[in-house]
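Our consortium's second objective concerns turning raw sequence data into structural hypotheses that experimental partners can test. To show how far this objective has progressed, the report includes one record in full. It was chosen at random from the queue rather than selected for favorable results. The single chain below, 758 residues long, was entered without modification.
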Amino acid sequence: MIMNISLSFLIFYFVFFFSLHYKESDATTTPPQNGNVYIVYMGANKNSHDMLLSSLLRRNKKALVHSYKNGFSGFAARLSVSEASQMRKQPGVVSVFPDPMFQLHTTRSWDFLEYETSVLIDSQPRFNAVPVSASKGSDTIIGILDTGIWPESESFSDEGMDPIPSRWKGKCMVGQNFTTSDCNKKLIGARYYKDEDSESQMQSPRDELGHGTHVSSTAAGVSVANASYYGLANGAAKGGSPTSHIAMYRVCFPDGCPGSAILAAFDDAIADGVDMLSLSLGASSSFAPYFSTDPIAIGAFHAVQKGITVLCSAGNDGPSPQSVVNVAPWIITVAATTIDRDLESDIVLGNNKVIKGESINFSELEESPKYPLISGSLAKTKSATEVDARNCYPNSIDAEMIKGKIVLCQHADNSIYSPRMKLTAVKKSGGVGIIIVNDKTRLIASNSGTFPMTVITSKDSAEILAYINSTENSVATILATKTIPAFKPAPTVAYFSARGPAAGLKNLLKHGLLMTNQKKTTPEGREPPRFNLLSGTSMACPHVAGIAGNIKSQNPSWSPAAVRSAIITTAIQINNLKEPITTQTGENATPYDYGAGEVSPTGGIQPGLVYDTDPADYLQFLCYYGYDISAIKLIATELPSGFACPKNSSKDMISNMNYPSIAISINSTTEPVTVKRTVTNVGTDEATTYTVTIDKPAELEVNVSPNELKFTADAKRLSYEVTFSPSSSAKGDLFGAITWTNKKYKVRSPFVVNRSGV
């Protein structure tokens, strides 16, 4: 079976990264639709729900797909275009939109995070130092929206688990190869959502793909000793919050994740009583729906209003700017970095030169360099172009010329052919191995099973080409993968990890954490492994969910915003060389790359101060974004007394949301901009004084007033203002941080001054 390993032996990528990117959807950005299903979203308005639904069912008894009545109101139904148009005109309807089809954003990780925390603590031993054992005794319930779960996994044993919390109202649904006895005190709930249009034949909470099992065990799996992937990355597998309970909501099928099912899962989870919801799925960056037509944003909004923390993966469309998804301000959005473990598959040349490569392969080639080596360009067919052959495109290389040889293949970032397709072509033509050349994927281990494949940089490729050209009998071999511990530098921001800033909305910097995308390959001729090596931002979400679960268990009264603040303000910005975290190109990372920094697994349990956000603040955000009060009344369960949208609302006002980060947008003016923040003392000392330090570029003046915050038993919430004054000579966006310290806690807030309008 395939399991997620969230300790010390999988290729995991971490970082905090938040960014907001929403725009109106149009015909060119709409994702594949789930049949003729439409979602009718009615916000918190339940008065018209039954009437509209009854009217629909009278016309077509089989029209209903899902009904939403717990956390919000609405339904998903099979409608014609004209029926959908009529629905939009009905009283109480916020929006009607086609059911989108989302996709999955597809270990040693926890040990690495704990080590990185110790790097910080060694240099500043008094700050936010919390024993790892602080996570014990949790009754937190983590809900997972994914592909289902494999309950027999050792990660879901309930031995020693606390009883199921009395507040739990969920259920363990019976389905194909799944009964109520498959649930226990660890896996306390499992639901699935039927999709008659899906290619899946399994109507059950059971996991067909392995992805949901992986992320569930990453978040809250119990410790399993001696876990490895066919001997690679050996260690103990455990989740981030091993004492937390798990509730699985199967919303994904082999062909995708229908938005209507995602909304149904949100609706059920709100009623079931979960504390956290983790979603390792979403749209591509080319599809950025409006808030009221995005099932994930809608469901998350109502969940957060009920006190549920929602975490989502940021997507794998990096390193392009403005590529982040799942970025509504009420969501913790998670991106990716590398860790300190390298899965190295080396090339040995005939001149005894060793070239380091990266891959997961179980090569059975001999270790001595005896296999003929050829480049794709030298094996070109008569009809192929030089470029096609150099990149080993299908039908571009002569099968007779590569038979029995190792083939060197370039791989362009924008190639329409994946490395897997090139491997298949080389193998089919009788090649015995393939060397892929790509600078960006060099640090991401691709799995080729038993076929010898490795990935190298363009610099190393030049050395191999020079060797090929220096002799008529070039030979080489590709060695089986070995695990290299303590790899440096780490972390680096994964090249595929989605990036900011937000397109069209520069006044909110969000921070999440990162994980790697999924790969599920079993080597040919081998028994299926107990564990697998996976990567992607899919793997970030469950790590954050586990950390958030620990924070919540130790601070049960905290709001989702307080949990988010604790994670962000305790993040780490240095790597295992005690230098600034970089991107994979070696450049220093910015908040657009990694948000607040690398997550601390325990620092957020006692952060000192938190930036809390009242649920009403999100209603104000809707005002700033352009919603009128009538629309907000439909969306919200209830409005605070006297609530109204400010006159002349604008997106610039979003900068004043009480976020643990600051983002402002400067246009052609260089006039100072002032924002306000409020912090709450949650430290162990009621009477304490925090002083501020500012990290800023020379082209920017930053003034914090007051520069001291004196908390007492009667003054637990204090405010401060920050004024930003960029000089006329400043160029590009500006980055920095404001940090409050009391010699016991360190509370850091990154900031961005966006100057795209200058």
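The partners drew two points from this record. The mean pLDDT is 85. The domain at 105-125+140-340+492-605 is CATH 3.40.50.200 (Rossmann fold). Both points have been shared with the crystallography group to help prioritize constructs.
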